[in-house]
Structures are given as C-alpha cells and as structure tokens.
C-alpha cells in the first residue's frame, strides 16, 4: 500500500444520500459543490468554496474560439461537457463537469441603444449570447445519475484514477456502492492486519448504539475493514434502485450498465491484477450478508450484473482463443514459415494475452460468495434477480454454466412460493431449449424435474401455465419419446383452458404432434400430397381427436385454441365444405358423427372470423395482441361470405332431414356479409337459400330448427341490406300461409270446445305445429299486423272457463301472447300512442299477468315453469316504465305481496328440491346423466330469472332473505347465482343488502328456536344445527366486501342488538332464572364484528353495553355465553391508537430487537468469512466440483437432490444472516 493511503487510514469518506445531496463530511469540513462561472465583462473569474481555496487548475478560461481546457491551451470538442479528474482535499477523486449556459442580450433586430442593426435574424457579435462555463464537482454516484452518456466517462475516469492510486480509487468505488444502497451515513476504513488472527471475526457484526442512535456494520473488504454507519430511522422502503419515478428507473439502468462497463474496460488491464476483484468480491459478499434489505438487495444486483459481465467477457475471450487456435492450425498446415511468420507471432501473442482461467476463478468465487447465499433469500426480489441472471449466464457462457452443478438451482427454484421466481425459471429454461445445441445437454436435468414441469401447467398463475406449455412444446421437438401417450393426453386437454395464451400454446403442441405431416411425406416420397389433401387429412385427425378425447364438449374453445396455431386449417372454408359435400360412399366421406362435429367446427370458425373475438368465458391475458386490422378482417369476412353464399343452399339441402346438423348451419347467414349478393351478381343463390329456408320451415316442427330459421330470415330481411327486397316478401308469404292454415283450425277447435267435443289427434297436431312455427317467427319478427293476440287470448280465456285444453296448445298460446304484448310495448316506446291505447295495453298486460298467475299451479311442470319465466320477465319490464302519471308510466306495475308470495312458493317447490341419495344437494352430475343435467339447467334458469327481480328492486327484502337461506345448503348447484345476487345488490345499495342479510339470519334463527326451543346444549352451538347458521353468517360477513363495509356492519350490529333483546325474558323451568329468547342471536352477530374498523370497535362495544337491559347477569356466567362471545369479538383487535408522544413504528427490521434492551447489543447479522485473496483460487476451483460428503453419508450424491445443498454449500449456508430465511424447495406453487 502506498504511503499516502497509509496516512488516509481512519479518515472518513463523504457519502451522498440517494437524492444526490451531500450530508456527511470528513473531519476537515463540509463537502460542498464548487462552481466556476464567467462574467460576461471579464475574461476569467474563479468562484471559490467559502472558507477554502480551490486549486487554480479548476479555473476555466473562455476565448472567442470556444471553450479551452483548464490551462487555456488547445481546443476541446464542442457540444460535450468536459470532465477532468481531481482530488478534493479529503484525497478522494472527483470529476469536474463543465455545463454551458447562454448569457447576453436577447437576439433581435435592435442594438443596445434601441437602433436597428444592419442584418435581421442574427444580432452583432458583441450582442450575441455568450456561453458561460459552469463547472461542478461531482462524485461517482452523481456521474452515474447524470445519464447514460456519463456512465462511460465515469468508468474511464475511474480506471485512470485506479492506475494512479488504486487504494483511493477502490475506496471511491466502495463509497459508490454504499451510496447506491441508500445509506445516509458514513464509511470508515481501517487496515486489516494479518496478525489479528481470529479476532477479526468478532468484528464482522452489525450492532446498534442506543446512545448515538446509529447502526454499525463492520465487514472485511481486503485490505480494509470497512465500517458503515447510518441513522436509526433508515427508510428501508426507499433506496435508489427501487425509487419511484422515471429518474430512479433510469438510475437503476445506469447502475447496471456501470457494473458491466467496469468489467469490459478492465478485463484486459487491471481486472486480474489480484487486487481489484478481490476487494470488490469481499465488499459485495459483506454487503450481501447484511440483514438490512436495502444493502442486501443493491449488492446482490451489483454482484449478479458483475457476474453477467464477466461471463460475457470470458465467453468472448474463449471464442477468440478458439478462433486463433483454428488459424494457427491452418498456418501450421500451410507450412509457410517465412511469409507468415509475423502472423504466427500475432496469433501466439493473442493466445498468451487471454486469461480465461483467471476470470473463471473470479466467476466461481463471486458465484459462491454472492449467488449461493442469496438465491434462497427471504425477499422474492432478490431471488428473482438471482434466477434471471443465472439464466443469462447459462445462455452467455455455456462452456462453464451449462452444467448440472448450476442447472440444479433453476430446478430447485421451480418449487418457489413466489410466482415471479417460478416465471423467471421457466423463461430461463425456455431460452435454453430454443437452441438445439443447449437443449441436447439438458437431458438429465429434464429427467429429474420432468414431473415438476408437467405439474406447473396447472399453476395458479395463468401466465406461468402458458409459458410452461410453450416450454414443453420445445422439449417435445428436441427429444423423441420424452412424453408418454397419457402425458400427451394430459397436455392436449389444455386447449380448452379458459386462459387464451395457454389454449394457444396447447394448440401449437397439438399441431406439432397430431396435425403435422409425417417426415416421409414431401421429403422421400415420389408423389408428395398437395396442400388440399393434407388439410383434409389434418381435419379428419382433428375430428377424431375431438371425438376420442374425454374432455370438454366445447367446439368453440377448440377452434379458438387453434385459431392462431393452425390458421390454414380452421380458416380453410373450401376444405371443410368439400368434406361436408362429399357424397356418401366417396373416398373422403365422413361418418354421421364426424359430419356433426365438422359442422360445429365450421360454424364456430365462421363466428370467430366475423366477430373477431374469442368465445365468452375465455380470458385474453395481459399481453393480448392488438385487434386485427379492420380492413383485413373486412376482406376476410367478404371472402368467407362469397364462399358460403354459394355453398350454403347445397349444405341446407343435403342435411335438411337431420335437425342436429341443419340447426347450426342456419346460423351462418347471421355472420356473413349479405351485400355480396348485389355486388358480385349472386342473386340466384339468394333465391335458392330462401327456397331452402321455406322448405325447412314446412318440414320441421322442432322448436330449435324453427327458431334458427326465423333468425336466418331475420338476417336476410335486415332493412338496408341487399337481400331485404327479396327476403321480406318471402317471409310475409310464409307467415300468411301459416296464419291462413291456423285460422280455420282454431275456429273448429273453439266450436268443438264450446260443445264439449274433442278434435282428433291429427287436427290437434296440426294446430300445435302451426302454433310452434308462429311462435318461433313472433320471437324475431313483428307479426302484429296479423292480429294474433285476439286468437291467443280467446284460447287462454276458454281454458280458464272450460278447464280442458291440451297442454301444448296453452304453452304456445302463452308464448305467442307474451311476444304480442312485447311488440306492442316496443311500438309504444318508439312512438307514444294515445292514452286510450295505453290504457288498453295496460288492461291486456294485467290480464296476461293474471293468466300466468293461474298457470303457476298447473299440474303440468313444463307449463307452470314457462308461466313463471314469462311472468318474471314481464314484471321486470313493467317495473321500469317511469312515473305512473306520464307517458309509458301508465304501464308501470309492481307485484303485490300475494303475487310475491306465489313466486316465492314456486321457487321453493320447483328450484330448491331435496335431492335423493346420500349426497343430497351437493350431488355431482356426470355426462351420462343428461336428463338430470337438463333439469338442473332449467332450475338454474328459473332461479336466475327470479334473482333479477331481487337485484332490480322489484321484490321486497323478504324475497331476497328467502333466497339467501339456501346459499350453503345448495351451494354446489346455485351458489354462484346467489352470490352474484348478493354482489349486485350490494353494488346498488349497501344498506339494503345488509338489511336483507340480517332478515335472512333472523328468519333462520326463529325457525331454529321454534324447532328446538329455549333449552339448548352448549355443544350444539359448535357442531349442531345452529352451527350451520353461524357458518352462513360468516359467509354473509365475507360478502360485505373490504371497502366501505363499516356502515353495513354498524347497521347489522344496531338492528341485531335490538332484535336480541326485543322479546321479554322468559323464566326457566329449572332455577327460575330469566332468559331472553333471542339472546343466542348474538353468536351470529359476532361473525360481523370483523367488518367493524378497529378504531370504531370501542364505540361499538360501548353501544353493546348500553343495549343490555337491567337485570341481565354479568359477563362470565355459564348461561350468558352469547354475551361473552360477542363482547370478545369486539375486543379482538391489534389496533393501538398512536398519540403524539408515542414514537412511530420502527422502519428498520432490527428496531424491535434493539429496543427491548437498554444497552447496545449485537444484531443477528451474518459473520463475514475471513478469507484472503490467497485463498481465492483454491476456493473457486473447489466450487466447480461437489465436495465429497463425510461420515454418515453416501459417497455418491445426486447433484439435483434438494439435500445436496447442505453438503455442497454448508460453509455458506451456515454463515447467513438470521433474518434471511431459506425458502422451501419442496412446496407447491401458490
């Protein structure tokens, strides 16, 4: 060490805080900025620091030619801030940064006397703005914070200062890293004496001095023992690399760039001098073992970036050395000694200058001292940095890091509990498997962690699942037979996943493994198949995959999963229609089941091509791609429309007899651009399509087919479309034909009913089929001009008077009447009719409501359910028609209590049924139970219709309370609907929702008391029937939400307390004590205490004590347990009101430990390992090979085993700080 550095021993180093302000000085005085400015009237002026003289070399001289250097000689390049390195009076290297400012008269066309100048636009020379040089003294931290352009200069100047005085330069570098940690204190350095022996180990501590209020951290950075001091209240939540805003984000980037440039600038000079990296490694290892998060986080980032730069540099050196070696071999083979002698000498010199082994030793030592302790850090941010940089090392320097000794860390971190760490592991592996050279070396790794990677496809984070699926696809491309058939089946099912990127990744895997042509086709074959035949074969394979797979039966999700993975397949309209139009017995003919699946695929693809978005229920993801260009999608839709306009009549004609196949085909006109009929001269195809629709209406009587035909007619009859002129008359003729056929049949039927006679089955079948056709068209088209309401009303009136009519006729009459009334309401909304017409419409509506109310108790289940649904929908419409005295307000109607009771009784009897069997309401239906599933669907539909009345305040609170009672009992089948009802009701009115929850609990409690009476067993409150009510109250409390729940909780508390003490006390049979009947209701109120803010629970407790009537026994007696439980629920709080005299919570993680004792005490910090640069090579070389475990263990260990960490890294893991916990690598993903 130089003499000067020895004199500097023990001096303080000034340190800037994270904001760039100088806060601590040395013993000589405050370390301030020094500015040098120039006055316009003088040549050179020097501004000196108050109380001190700046060295004369700091003066800056300005001449007419521009800015010169500090001596006034020579020119400097203009446009760049000049920097020179000097030492301040503390002996530290600083930079003199020169900024330029303009000073002088404003530019214009007048001189100083106000007279005009000779030229416009540019003032004379003496009145131009003159540049003023402002020179500031900045530290290394400030230079890095200045911006990207200053980082390169900072590194170059520091390297130059290191060559001049390496001790002071190293102290400057250490001070820089300490400032980046956000430390606002100071750094002292004392020489490390080798004769101190083991006593230095006891100095490597972190402690708190209660007298001075400072923290001390002492660690070894050879050849010094550094001591960092900072105040007690250090802001751990803010330090430079995590600071908010764009400035600190750029600083983090500059900080990482500084560490990388430091290695790049010194790798050929001072990097391997045995002093620089030894000190840096000692310093970083000491900081990474700190228990303070800011020190540990910043130093870990610096160490990881330093390792990345070392790996990049060494990989370049190895590449150049191999290239030189190949050139030498070429020269030796040429045997031209004289002519190429100089070339051989240059190549030998290059090989001798490179030092890859020395850099490898530095890499291994730094890896062992920083990465190994920190990859298991308690902070997920540090673990993310370690895993992400490890992936970069393996990619940059595979010669060293692409080894199982390093890959094992990525494998272990796949089990991390933090999602971001697992994501970085998957991304690192994905980058390795993208290259075949590196993928071929990962066979053993994948064999060890195959089960874990497969299980991560079911991770809780959807982004991880999609990346994992892409990783598995890459693995399947590189390895043959790596997955079994069952594993492929497991992976293929994710094409139906709700997360779209995951489904797309599974679709890519399906394309690679199922739809890709065999290797022999198109390569070795003489006659390779053309594209059309290959698409046909792939389509058949896809159909078989859907039929044979025991997965979901959702074709739209399968099509969307393949939409981006196989666009040439799912958008190939010619291929799909050719397969459908293939005649029976043809070469490419499909079976009936295959045709049904292909039609579903075709319709789903047509819908997605027209709408441009995935099916409902599929999440797009955070990184959803931009929507396809509107022009491009319009062109694709026009091309698709031109194709289907031609082939749709053929498809309808072929599958006209099969209702399951023709029904989805009838949806295609809704997604096509029907204007192509006029633009492309395809009018003949429109006539064919309308003719096929007419035939289908007359041929089928199935409701699904008829409704599909009606919607297809609606698409063709759209006003303004090119097909409207031909389709509208065709639709009118069809309706005329149906009405003309129905009128005589109804007349005969009514005449026979009045006479007490019955029509035959044939005539009744014709009436029912005609009514079904008219109902289907009435749902889509306005048929008011045919006056069907009068005919349907006569049927319903006759039914109520006579009492005998087929159920199907009544069913169709109800639907037809309902649609007729809706179209009249729509017409009145578009154009307000006279008041007489509105009163007549109201009379019709009330008459229909009475009819539906009568049919609620009909013996036919189908008819009663249809009447319930129609009545609920109509009540929802009529309750939102505005005030009763204006316009459509005459139609306003809300149900009375009698009608509400009828609806509630219907819901109890037809929705919440008692399931047979041991499972009861929680029974899980299987695919074979088609009838039960269909019935469950209708029950859910009826409950949803009723809950809409509750959400829109059509029904009273009692109706909502009745529904909420079944929340837990029927949670498996109807829990989602009831929960959504609670959520919507809370969004509309929180207090009304709270009152409905309280009313529900009161009703259940009253039923319980009526059943079991006042005599209760305390055990019953824990596991008896009453406990189910407590669980329901707990669920209700959770539905109140997290924000703005205090008003609802207080309302429930006040009303609940009033109900608990509302009834008069009753004397017990034994003992003669007085007991309140509703006192146990306090046990239910206790579940809502958690929603009262902690600061307000004292007020709630006082209100509870004031609500207790006189004469009630005190707390603690056996029969007053409800009072005690409710009182304890209000007292459970961790909130402590903070007064002005009390101190703020400790910001440092060690404050709680230090404040327990009145004397300074040792913190639970790590002890810095006492190793010197002499042991660097030996420790780094030993890190490459796993150590042989000693006694009691096997001689051969699997390096991928989790327990292997304890044997290989026992020295490091035992010396970690107590506050930093190791994560569990055997746990599942969160």
From TrEMBL:
Q: Does the keyword tRNA-binding apply?
A: no
- Boundaries of each SCD domain copy? 371-456
- Subcellular location(s) of the protein: Nucleus; Chromosome; Chromosome, Centromere
Question: Where along the chain is composition biased (Polar residues)?
Answer: 1167-1181
What Gene3D superfamilies does the database record attribute to this sequence? Leucine-rich Repeat Variant (1.25.10.10)
Annotated stretches, region: Disordered: 1-27, 106-125, 1164-1230
Top-rank taxon? Eukaryota
Parts of the chain that traverse the membrane? none
For the keyword Transmembrane helix, the answer is no
Q: Which Pfam families match?
A: HEAT_SCC3-SA, SCD, STAG
Q: Any idea which UniProt keywords this protein has?
A: Cell cycle, Cell division, Chromosome, Chromosome partition, Nucleus
Q: Which PROSITE patterns match?
A: SCD
List the biased-composition ranges (Acidic residues): 1206-1220
Q: What does this protein do?
A: Component of cohesin complex, a complex required for the cohesion of sister chromatids after DNA replication. The cohesin complex apparently forms a large proteinaceous ring within which sister chromatids can be trapped. At anaphase, the complex is cleaved and dissociates from chromatin, allowing sister chromatids to segregate.
Describe its partners and assembly state: Part of the cohesin complex which is composed of a heterodimer between a SMC1 protein (SMC1A or SMC1B) and SMC3, which are attached via their hinge domain, and RAD21 which link them at their heads, and one STAG protein.
The family classification in the record reads: Belongs to the SCC3 family.
What protein name applies here? Cohesin subunit SA
- Record the organism: Acinonyx jubatus
The coding gene here is LOC106982040
């Amino acid at each position: 060490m130089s003499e000067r550095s020895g004199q500097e021993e023990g001096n303080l180093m000034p340190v800037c805080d994270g904001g760039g302000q100088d806060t601590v000085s040395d013993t000589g005085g405050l370390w301030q900025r020094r500015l040098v400015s120039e006055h316009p009237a003088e040549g050179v002026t020097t501004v000196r620091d108050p109380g001190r003289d700046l060295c004369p070399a700091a003066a800056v001289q300005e001449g007419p030619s521009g800015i010169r250097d500090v001596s006034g000689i020579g020119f400097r390049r203009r446009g760049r801030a000049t920097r020179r390195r000097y030492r301040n009076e503390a002996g530290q290297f600083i930079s003199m940064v020169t900024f330029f400012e303009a000073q002088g008269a404003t530019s214009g066309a007048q001189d100083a006397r106000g007279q005009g100048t000779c030229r416009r636009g540019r003032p004379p020379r003496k009145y131009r703005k003159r540049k003023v040089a402002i020179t500031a003294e900045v530290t290394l931290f400030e230079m890095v914070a200045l911006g990207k352009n200053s980082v390169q200069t900072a590194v170059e100047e520091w390297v130059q200062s290191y060559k001049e005085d390496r001790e002071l330069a190293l102290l400057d570098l250490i001070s820089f890293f300490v400032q980046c940690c956000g430390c606002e204190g100071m750094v002292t350095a004392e020489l490390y004496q080798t004769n101190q022996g083991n006593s230095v180990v006891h100095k490597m501590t972190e402690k708190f001095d209660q007298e001075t209020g400072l923290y001390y951290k002492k660690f070894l950075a050879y050849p010094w023992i550094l001591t960092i001091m900072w105040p007690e209240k250090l802001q751990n939540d803010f330090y430079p690399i995590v600071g908010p805003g764009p400035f600190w984000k750029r600083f983090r980037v500059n900080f990482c760039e500084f560490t990388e440039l430091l290695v790049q600038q010194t790798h050929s000079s001072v990097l391997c001098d045995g002093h620089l990296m030894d000190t840096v490694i000692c310093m970083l290892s000491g900081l990474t073992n700190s228990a303070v998060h800011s020190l540990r986080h910043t130093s870990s980032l610096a160490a990881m970036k330093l390792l990345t730069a070392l790996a990049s540099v060494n990989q370049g050196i190895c590449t150049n050395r191999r290239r030189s070696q190949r050139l030498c071999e070429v020269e030796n083979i040429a045997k031209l000694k004289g002519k190429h002698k100089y070339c051989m000498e240059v190549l030998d010199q290059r090989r001798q200058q490179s030092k890859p082994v020395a850099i490898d030793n530095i890499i291994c030592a730094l890896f062992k001292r920083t990465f190994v302790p920190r990859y298991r850090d308690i902070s997920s941010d540090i673990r993310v940095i370690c895993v992400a940089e490890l992936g970069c090392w393996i990619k940059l320097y595979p010669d060293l890091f692409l080894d199982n000794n390093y890959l094992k860390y990525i494998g272990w971190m796949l089990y991390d509990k933090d999602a971001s760490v697992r994501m970085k592991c998957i991304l690192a592996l994905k980058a390795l498997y993208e290259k075949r050279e590196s993928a071929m070396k990962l066979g053993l790794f994948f064999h060890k962690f195959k089960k874990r990677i497969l299980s991560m496809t079911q991770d809780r984070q959807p982004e991880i699942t999609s990346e994992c699926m892409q990783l598995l696809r890459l693995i399947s491309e590189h390895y043959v037979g790596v997955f079994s058939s069952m594993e492929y089946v497991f992976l293929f099912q994710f094409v139906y996943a709700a997360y779209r990127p995951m489904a797309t990744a599974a679709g890519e895997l399906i394309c690679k493994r199922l739809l890709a042509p065999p290797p022999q086709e198109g390569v070795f074959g003489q006659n390779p198949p053309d594209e059309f035949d290959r698409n046909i074969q792939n389509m058949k394979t896809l159909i078989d995959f859907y039929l044979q797979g025991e997965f979901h039966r959702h074709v739209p999700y399968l099509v969307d999963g393949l939409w981006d993975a196989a666009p040439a397949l799912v958008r190939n309209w010619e291929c799909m229609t050719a397969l459908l139009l293939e005649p029976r017995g043809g070469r490419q003919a499909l079976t009936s089941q295959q045709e049904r699946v292909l039609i579903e695929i075709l319709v789903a693809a047509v819908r997605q091509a027209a709408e441009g978005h995935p099916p409902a229920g599929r999440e797009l993801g955070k990184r959803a791609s931009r929507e396809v260009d509107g022009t491009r999608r319009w062109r694709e839709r026009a091309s698709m429309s031109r194709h289907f306009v031609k082939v749709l009549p053929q498809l309808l004609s072929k599958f006209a007899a099969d209702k399951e196949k023709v029904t989805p085909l009838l949806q295609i006109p809704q997604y096509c651009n029907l204007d192509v009929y006029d633009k492309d001269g395809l009018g003949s195809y429109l006539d064919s399509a309308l003719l096929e629709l007419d035939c289908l209406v007359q041929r089928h009587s199935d409701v699904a087919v008829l409704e599909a035909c009606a919607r297809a007619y609606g698409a063709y009859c759209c006003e303004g479309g090119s097909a409207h002129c031909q389709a509208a008359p065709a639709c009118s003729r069809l309706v005329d034909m149906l009405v003309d056929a129905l009128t005589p049949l109804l007349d005969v039927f009514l005449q026979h009913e009045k006479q007490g006679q019955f029509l035959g089955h044939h005539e009744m079948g014709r009436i029912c089929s005609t009514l079904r056709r008219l109902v289907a068209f009435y749902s889509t088209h306005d048929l008011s001009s045919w006056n069907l309401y009068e005919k349907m009303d006569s049927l319903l009136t006759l039914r109520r008077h006579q009492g005998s009519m087929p159920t199907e006729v009544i069913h169709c009459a109800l639907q037809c009447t309902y649609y007729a009334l809706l179209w009249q309401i729509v017409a009145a909304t578009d154009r307000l009719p006279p008041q007489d017409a509105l009163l007549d419409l109201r009379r019709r509506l009330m008459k229909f409501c009475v009819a539906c109310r009568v049919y609620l108790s009909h013996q036919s289940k189908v008819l009663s359910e249809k009447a319930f649904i129609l009545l609920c929908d109509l009540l929802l419409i009529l309750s939102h028609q505005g005030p009763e005295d204006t316009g459509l307000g005459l139609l306003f109607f809300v149900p009375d209590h009698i009608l509400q009771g009828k609806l509630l009784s219907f819901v109890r009897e037809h929705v919440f049924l008692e399931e047979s069997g041991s499972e009861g309401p929680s029974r899980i239906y299987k695919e074979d139970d088609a009838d039960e599933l269909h019935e469950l669907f209708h029950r859910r539909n009826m409950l949803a219709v009723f809950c809409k009345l509750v959400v829109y305040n059509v029904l009273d609170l009692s109706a909502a309370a009745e529904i909420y009672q079944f929340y837990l009992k029927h949670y498996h089948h109807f829990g989602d609907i009831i929960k959504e009802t609670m959520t919507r009701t809370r969004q509309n009115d929180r207090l009304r929702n709270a009152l409905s929850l309280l009313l529900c609990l009161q009703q259940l409690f009253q039923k319980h008391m009526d059943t079991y009476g006042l005599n209760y067993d305390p055990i019953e409150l824990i596991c008896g029937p009453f406990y189910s009510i407590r669980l329901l109250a707990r669920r209700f409390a959770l539905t109140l939400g997290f924000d703005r729940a205090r008003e609802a909780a207080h309302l429930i508390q006040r009303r609940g307390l009033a109900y608990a003490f509302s009834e008069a006390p009753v004397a017990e049979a034994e003992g003669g004590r007085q007991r309140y009947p509703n006192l146990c209701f306090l046990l239910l109120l206790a579940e809502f205490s958690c929603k009262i803010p902690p600061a307000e629970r004292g007020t709630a407790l006082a209100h509870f004590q004031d609500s207790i009537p006189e004469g009630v026994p005190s707390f603690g007696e056996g029969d007053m347990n409800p009072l005690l439980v409710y009182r304890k629920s209000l007292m459970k709080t961790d909130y402590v009101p903070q007064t002005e005299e009390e101190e703020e919570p400790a910001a440092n993680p060690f404050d709680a430990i230090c404040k327990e004792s009145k004397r300074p005490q040792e913190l639970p910090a790590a002890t810095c390992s006492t190793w010197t640069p002499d042991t660097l090579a030996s420790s780094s070389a030993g890190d490459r090979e796993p150590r042989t475990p000693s006694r009691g263990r096997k001689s051969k260990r699997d390096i991928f085993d989790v327990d292997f960490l304890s044997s290989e890294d026992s020295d490091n893991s035992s010396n970690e700080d107590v506050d930093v916990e190791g994560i569990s690598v055997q746990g599942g993903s969160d």
